[in-house]
Amino acid sequence: MLSTEALKGRQTGMGWSARRGRRATKSTRFALGCMLSILLSQVSAAGARAASGHDAWGYWVLTGSPVVGTGYTTATLLPMGKVLAVGGYEPNPYYAQVYDPTTGSWSLTTQAPHGYLGATATLLPSGRVLVAGGNNGAGDAVGWDDIYDPSTAQWRSPPWMHRARACDSATLLPSGSVLVASGNTYVGVTRTAELYLPTKSRWVYTGSLIQGRQCFRAVQLRGGRVLVMGGQDRNSKVLATAEIYDPATGTWSATGSMSQARAFPTATLLSDGRVLVAGGGGSAGELASAEIYDPATGMWTPTGSMSQARVSAAATLLPDGLVLVCGGYDGFNVLNTAELYDPATGAWSPTGSMNYPREAHTLTLLPDGRVLTFSGTTAELYIPPSN
User: Fold this and answer.
1) Distance between CA 31 and CA 69 in Å, rounded?
2) Distance of CA 371 to the CA centre of its chain
3) pLDDT at residue 19 above 80?
4) Tell me: domain 4-383, CATH 3.40.1570.10, correct?
């Protein structure tokens, strides 16, 4: 049972809703707000549970429950098709567990050397997983990192990042290096970025961003460049700006700004190389709008809006080219609804609702086309229309 203070977290300055009208003392507390919202959702889920429709538009089915509760946990598809989940809310930040899609069950693996909450996780070319950064559960960013080897179920600890980071991004580059950009540090938002070099097991600085940002999104474009957009600056101002990192030069350059400022949106690379950004928290509240970035022109174009506003939702590209978006926070409730975006028409259509409302969760596309999501003590699978 959650404590009274935990249940009150949404109203006491920890979550997105608390940022409407006042600035948080530590911007990393947004991440904690997402975590507490998940916990709150699980407490009330029994009364809010919605049956998933087994119709032509896809549906959700419950699968095995995580061994330990999750929240603001990483999710990484491993080469053998299993999913590694690391960290989460107290008292589980050291736990690591693996989901097996063939059995629909979870099992614990070796605990991480460090605790992780809201960390990044990147699958390296070797098949190992780099987990880095996040916060310590008290709202302070951390700079430690660890590497998990699924073949041995063991961890090793390379040198730490140069800067502690939370609400940052991590992107695997074509060279095999990992770009970690911006985020919140001990002293506010940083413009710095650094590269992890797996062959040398060390971190090196690379070019700094034009605009320091946190709670933004990053997408690797075709050709290897990395687009970052939105987020918040050190004063918690929501941003519309975007910029691109070029691995060949190690520098950032400005590109077109979004039509609306957004923090915590979803960002998905489409099959044609464009990028769909949807929802998020705007300057005046939660957003249902969406827009498309075209790398060929460097410009954004508005597209169809979702049926409802969503902040801290999750999204993934399905094998048929549609984009699944689900959950999030609409300004009043954590959501269990889901919808599909069709890039060919620029329109959204409803699909089956999740069995539980979820916020700040993940979506992992499995090799068989199903999609895994989990938070709190439950997990479920999305069965796409084509399945």
Assistant:
1) 17
2) 15
3) no
4) no
The residue ranges of every structural domain in the chain are: 4-383
Whole-number Å distance between alpha carbons of 348 and 332: 22
Amino acid identity at 375 = S
Beta carbons within 10 angstroms of residue 365's beta carbon:
17
Q: Which of 219, 232, 341, 241 is nearest to 288 (CA)?
A: 341
Q: Provide the pLDDT confidence category of residue 216 given band limits of 50, 70 and 90.
A: very high
149 touches 99 (CB < 8 A):
no
Tens of pLDDT, residues 341-359: 999 999 999 999 999 999 9
Q: How far apart are CA 383 and CA 183, in angstroms?
A: 34
pLDDT tens, position by position, 85-144: 999 987 789 999 999 999 999 999 999 999 999 999 999 999 999 999 999 888 899 999
Q: Rounded distance, CA 308 to CA 3, Å?
A: 31
Q: What pLDDT does residue 57 have?
A: 81
If you compute the radius of gyration of the chain from its CA atoms, what whole number of angstroms results? 19
Beta carbons of 76 and 87 less than 8 angstroms apart: no
Of 379, 368, 383, nearest in space to 64 by CA: 379
Indicate the average pLDDT of the chain: 88
For residues 179 and 168, is the Cβ–Cβ distance under 8 A? Answer: no
| The two structure tokens encoding residue 231 | 């987020």
Q: b or e along 331-363 (b: 16 or more beta carbons within 10 Å of the residue's beta carbon)?
A: eeebbbbbbbbebeeeebeebbbbbbbbbbbbb
> Which amino acid is it at 299?
M
- Cα(306)–Cα(268) distance, integer angstroms: 15
The string of DSSP letters for 286-315 reads E---EEEEETTTTEEEEEPPPSS--BS-EE
pLDDT computed for residue 49 by the predictor = 36
Name 246's bridge partners.
251
Residue pair 171/225 in contact by the 8 Å Cβ criterion:
no
CA–CA dist 34, 312 (Å, integer) = 8
The pLDDT, as a whole number, for residue 13 is 26
pTM over 0.85: yes
Share of the chain above pLDDT 70, in %: 85
